[in-house]
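From the shared-data thread, chain only:
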Amino acid sequence: MSPVVAVVLGTRPEIIKLAPLLHQLGDLAYVVHTGQHFDDAMSAVFLAECGLTVPQHTLAVGGRSRLGQVAGAALELDELFAKVRPGMVVVQGDTNSTLAGALAANAHGVPLLHLEAGLRSHDRSMPEEHNRVLVDHLGDVLCAATPTNVAYLRAEGIPADRVELTGNTIVEAVRLHLPSTVERQRRLAAWGVRPGRYVLATVHRQENTDSPAALEAILRELAEFVRRGWPVVMPLHPRTAKAAAAAGLDGILAELTRCEPLGYADFLSLAKDAALVVSDSGGLQEEVTVLKRPLIVVRRSTERPESLRSFATLVPPGPGIGAAAARVLADPDAVHRRLEQEASPYGDGLASSRVATLIRDRLASGR
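Structure, as tokens:
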């Protein structure tokens, strides 16, 4: 029998979050990689590290505009689903690949399951906000990570029988891939930093990289940490490196400990033992709740308000970054001890088994 669940993904976060579900589904699923992240360091490395085989189908939409990625992937998926009609399509998050998969499923009348449904920033300047809203309203099974996500979906008039509270697969992904204490210490030694005595930083979102003023403000704040005795380790996203060079900011970047994008275990090692994390990432807002580390979210809005209750502080680019950091770095050990007592709002680490059960039940019932 042919596989009956098409899992569409295209970026590093999708690979990480869908891997636990793919392992649960086994031969029931086949993977379609859109190529949205096409660099090996952003894609192939993570497929291998997450124990996934080469995708059964690989598209090539990377490097195109947002609309070009959505349209190109949707058209290729349309052709694929006409040849190999799945019983269900699974997408995750809010990327261009997510929207393309949802549109193709809808065009073929195939049931759509959306993992990580119900995220809302209420910020229409975010392309991801448009993607996630559209996908949720196309979806047939909406797997929400938190009660807040469920409430957002219900407030938009989505029927209760389409919404399931499952938790987020990131909890089990972090637990599975986080190296042991001894292994983390070995990795940190290679970077020349000591546990709890450095800052980890990542910047990649368009709102920060496409604005030279915003990017400069962030990098200057990070460089100030270094001057105050807190080394900053910064895995450099290709978009950020290109934007910094174009804006003439390489001199500021030189003050930081920069590296290429890291594999997942390496990155988790750095995040787990950092005094503080500074990032504009959405996924890191979830990961720090499992790693029990404080995070400064350098953005104007967030779709993950649950993280702000204990683990994260939302700050726009500028001097507010330094002010928020000072409150943590005055006594980071005390902050870490407090966070160790806080439960992650994203679930108990059983999300993938719940979602796999939903998929099998829906397929068996023909709903």
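The chain has two domains: 5-169+349-365, 180-340.
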